Amino acid sequence: MLPSSHIFLGAITSFFIFIIFPQIGWLAFLIIFLSSVLIDFDHYLYYVVKKKDFSLMNAYAWFIKNRDIWMALSKKEKEKFQQGIIIFHGIECWILLILLTLISRWFLFVLIGVLVHMVFDFIELYKNNSPFYIKFSQVYTHRKNKRLKLENEGVRVKKRVKPA
């Protein structure tokens, strides 16, 4: 989903949460909104690591170009490609946030913002016939990427057989 969509949907959803639960206050509203948008910072980090370029504009252009190519692929074709590791978009990060809520209630609002973001990401994945794992578990994504790399190099990879 494009940043402008996340800003718009994050603002509306955060505002509705604030309207339903006014006792959370304006600061919590702001934390929910900002975390629903700033979670995508991991896309930029991925670009910096992959391209060794710190330009935010280049990163945005690169993602837009690749997004257009990605959208044109069928679901079956999408399964053949390695996915970027976007560290804040996985259950691993969500578990860490849950644990951090034990330290401070403010992390609960960060978690809520992240979950708001993820709901819209999952809706977009569904609409675009994209695999859900790419934004559910970064450990699984890493393992799948490793297997795809080996397969692309011609190495036979033993796949698990599910019991009948």
Account of the 3D structure:
- This protein has helices at 3-20, 25-38, 41-51, 56-71, 75-78, 91-100, 106-127, 138-152.
- The model has no long low-confidence stretch (mean pLDDT 90).
- It has 8 helices and no strands.
- It has 164 residues and is an all-alpha fold.
- The protein has one domain.
N-to-C order of helices and strands: HHHHHHHH
How would you sum up the major sheet? none
Total strands = 0
Radius of gyration: 18 Å
What structural class should be given to the helix and strand makeup?
mainly alpha
Q: On the 0-100 scale, what is the average pLDDT?
A: 90
Coarse morphology? globular
Terminal Cα span: 38 Å
* Number of helices in the DSSP assignment: 8
Q: What quaternary form is this?
A: single chain
Helix content: 55-70%
Q: Approximately what portion of the residues adopt beta-strand conformation? A: under 5%
Low-confidence stretches: none
Tell me the domain tally: 1
What order do the helices and strands come in, and which of them pair?
Blueprint: H1 3-20, H2 25-38, H3 41-51, H4 56-71, H5 75-78, H6 91-100, H7 106-127, H8 138-152
Helix pairs in contact: 1-2, 1-7, 2-7, 3-4, 6-7
